[in-house]
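Sequence only, no structure available. Ideas?
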Amino acid sequence: MQNKIAQIFDFMRVLDKVCLVKRATLLSDGTVETDSSHTFKLAFMVMLIYPYLKHKYDYGHLLELALVHDIAEAETGDYPKAMQRAHPEIKAKKDAEEFAAMQRYSAILPEPMQSKIWDLYREYEEKQTPEAKLITALDKVDANMQANFYKGGAAYWAKYEDGDQYYKINTEKKKVVAILGEPIVEALEEGTIELALDSMAKIGVKMP
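Reply:
I predicted one. Tokens follow.
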């Protein structure tokens, strides 16, 4: 038992690092968002939309995927979406680093949790199950929603490297949302796009 407790403590130290990872988005007061605050909001989004989903999903499994989806960033840090889009080689590097990190992180834990964490990570990355596809879609919706909650508006996006990509990211409809066939998720996406267009209009940015 003591060995299992020690392993859980070691894994919790990994999660402590996740709470320190800063993202490219800002909270409403200008504070930099962290991975843990993003995960918190993503899990809540699952709860808020679950009663309105058209298809059947395993609720508990959705929450588990939401919790696990970004923990590799405790080691790798966050790679902004704009950077990944502009530089495919960076995305490939990110994927390789996160794979290696999750191999190490899941190995910290005793069975059956070692296999469970690894399987959840692989499921999310492969995006083949209904639950993984839904969490992937909500992950993108939350990121775009949060990007528009900052009271200063969209002006800060261009301050990042390749930040002009955020205008496209925040105003385009995502394939992963479309293939779900979930009206509630599509409505959330449309709402975030409206927020982005309004924010951009205030600073004189127009999409072609």
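The chain has a mean pLDDT of 90.
Hope that gets you unstuck.
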